[in-house]
Amino acid sequence: MDRSVSQGLILYQNNCIQCHGEDGKGLGALYPPLAGSDYIDKYPDSLACIIKWGRRGKIMVNGLEYDQPMPSNEKLLDEEITHLINYIQNAWGNAGVYTSPEQVEKGLNYCN
Amino acid sequence: MKRFPLFVLLGLLLMVSCNEGKRLPIIGPRTTLEVDGATDTLYHSIPGFVLMNQEGIEITEEDLKGNIVVADFFFTTCPSICPIMKTQMLRVNEEFATQEDFRIISISIDPRHDTIEVLKDYSQRLGASTAGWDFLTGDLDDILDLAQKGFLVSAAEDSTAPGGYIHSGAFILIDKELRIRGFYDGTKEEKVDLLMRDIKNLEAEYFDS
Questions:
Q1: Which residues of B touch A71 (CB under 8 A)?
Q2: Do B83 and A31 touch (CB under 8 A)?
């Protein structure tokens, strides 16, 4: 599990840090925070789809509305997406839940 | 012939190079003119342009004259280096926001998408104190031309690049006479530290003279 988190950190640095920041706090009202995000707590099953396919349209995170496109990461393998989810769920004092590659694979069947 | 001891010469050299070290270089092609037997050097400067800012106000090179300016090229949907550049530009903005004779311009290289309204929304979401920070849009060809020939940085459409454009991550330091005085990698915190130091050096140049 810790190995998954540490691999997730490297993937985070390569794919996410420029927008969501090293501290996971995002940037202004442009890029939402991942640290302490109520969205992550409420919709943990949506994370795989957001990471793989990006996201468009309005989204509420911690009471603030964001509305910029997040780019897709179609090249990421299911396993790498699992590591990323484990990283953002365990970094910055977040909830600390773990996700398995099977859960990610299943989740990706339900992306809209 | 009188001989100078070596150490005096060395000392003189050192003095000269120290003074030079304080002054920032003037960057770009230069031409020398003969005027009435005297030679005059013409430095490269930012050419004339007409763009619109996030408030819908026309901004030209005349508005920059008399200000120390930091410029960059970006686009609001850029997925790769722009968010970091904007985090760093916010630092510059915060440090110099209250200063007179200082401005920041961020010029969109995707003006078809980045309309005045989009730039207004973006600047507000960024949390920029926009008093001295203009986000500029206009004609695409004019902007690409201005980037390459005016600000001497690369910018082009490229369908294979993330977001559809390639562009330089440079912050460009412009003096009050519209001359380029430095390029700094806007994606690196330590280079932006250098830029902030050089802004102060440039200010000192005007103060001294």
A1: 79, 162-163
A2: yes
Q: How far is CA A40 from the centre of its chain?
A: 8
Q: Check which CATH number belongs to the domain holding A44 and give it.
A: 1.10.760.10
Q: In terms of residue numbers, what domain contains A39? A: 3-111
Asked if A68 lies within 8 A of B76 by C-beta distance, the reply is: yes
Amino acid at B59: I
Q: Which range among A9-23, A88-102, B161-175 shows the weakest confidence by mean pLDDT?
A: B161-175
The verdict on ipTM greater than 0.85 is no
Q: Taking every pair of C-alpha atoms in chain A, what is the biggest distance, in angstroms?
A: 35
Amino acid at residue number B43: Y
- Cβ B122–A30 below 8 Å, yes or no? yes
DSSP secondary structure, chain A, as one string: -HHHHHHHHHHHHHHTHHHH-TTS--BTTTB---TT-HHHHH-GGGHHHHHHH-B-S-EEETTEEE--PBPP-TT--HHHHHHHHHHHHHSTT-------HHHHHHHGGG--
The count of domains in chain A is 1
pLDDT tens-digit readout, B34-45: 888 888 888 999
Query: What 3-state class would DSSP assign to B186?
Result: coil
Task: Give the tens place of pLDDT for each residue, B42-74.
Answer: 899 999 999 999 999 999 999 999 999 999 999
Which helix (H) or strand (E) covers residue B207, if one does?
helix B189-208
CATH superfamily, domain B6-208, is Glutaredoxin (3.40.30.10)
Q: Note the pTM of the prediction, 2 decimals.
A: 0.84
